[in-house]
Design goal:
The chain is built from 5 helices and 3 strands, in the order αββααβαα. The protein has 110 residues and is α+β, with helices and mostly antiparallel strands.
Length: 110
């Protein structure tokens, strides 16, 4: 069985290649944080466990409510920069397009 663990890790890494843009919040219609990462499951876990410093920790942002995959980390970074300039209403509409109930999507990653 122990031999399967590295294989699973490689499978997850290859499936998750590229980059991710995501939103986390503390509650429905709460404080929003837009982020970018190359490893979404790991980053979402870090937010949930309070391992991310500063803004997200101070506001208790642990609920993953939106994510989108990009083929390259560069395109994900550019998308995040664009989104950060959007009005809040546009961000909320984007979340509603994927997750109208603002459910925590963390369990859908695995």
């Amino acid at each position: 069985m122990a031999g399967l663990v590295p294989a699973i890790h490689v499978l997850l890494q290859s499936r998750m290649a590229g980059g991710w843009v995501y939103f986390i919040t503390n509650k429905r219609n709460g404080v929003l944080y837009a982020g970018v990462t190359s490893t979404l499951p790991k980053r979402a876990y870090e937010h949930r466990e309070g391992l991310v410093d500063r803004f997200t920790q101070e506001h208790g942002l642990k609920r993953l409510v939106y994510y989108e995959r990009h083929d390259t980390i560069q395109s994900a970074i550019q998308r995040e920069k664009n989104i950060k300039h959007w009005p809040r209403a546009w961000k909320v509409r984007l979340i509603h397009s994927m997750n109208p109930n603002w459910d925590d999507l963390y369990d859908t990653l695995i």
